[in-house]
Amino acid sequence: MAAADPKSRSGEPRKEPFLLPVFLKLQGREVLLIGGGRVAGTKLETLLAAGARVTVVAPEVREDVCRPGVEIRRRPFEPDDLNGAWFAVAAATPEVNRQVEAAAEARRVFVNAVDDPLAATAFLGAVIRRADVAVAISTGGRSPALAGLLREALEVLLPDEEEAGSWLAAAEVLRANWRASAVPIAERRPLLLRALNELYGARK
After folding, report:
1. What is the DSSP string of 5-30?
2. How far apart are CA 101 and CA 113, in angstroms?
3. How far is 95 from 100, CA to CA, in rounded Å?
4. Tens digit of pLDDT for each residue in 165-202?
5. Number of compact structural domains in the chain
6. Is residue 47 within 8 Å of residue 26, measured between CB atoms?
7. Domain containing 141: what range?
8. Same domain, yes or no, for 133 and 67?
9. How deeply is 174 buried, as exposed, middle or buried, from its count of CB atoms within 10 A (0-12, 13-18, 19+)?
10. pTM beyond cutoff 0.85
11. How far apart are CA 110 and CA 82, in angstroms?
12. Of 74, 109, 70, residue with least CA distance to 90
């Protein structure tokens, strides 16, 4: 029997499948950044923070994009630039972004196309980071501004860096103990909630 079509809150069938939320480990992996302007510079910051080995391809590259360890190719994009890449970010003109998307699709490389959702197979959401806790919000490229506003609203509700770090450290220790004691997964959530409540109460 075929599975029912997923529906929206309105009860209408969804026209598109849901996006799969994923966090990528890019440390030491090749990433291609197409574009050398201001937006590319912003994306470069994110990629370098993730530990990626970045190659930038663009006829013109801003000075702040030229970083130590970043390979710069001052020329137009060529499909073979994607060879060996794990991920790509297209921050160029719509025409170039579509060229990148086609070449990436042929090589099975996911590409984030800045402000061009039709040329994208991956989306970089608005992110909140507290220690090693990360919350990402995406609108599937439909409204990055809305994702940013939602991030700002959530930021005031989440614990600060220090508190989030202490919660994570406690949760990590508890998880190791539960695994060693074979505590069923279904029983862990209420135990964790009680432990965090005690930790929060002790800090007040």
Report:
1. PPB-TTSPBPSSPPP-------TT-E
2. 8
3. 9
4. 999 999 999 999 999 999 999 999 999 999 988 887 77
5. 3
6. yes
7. 125-158
8. no
9. middle
10. no
11. 10
12. 109
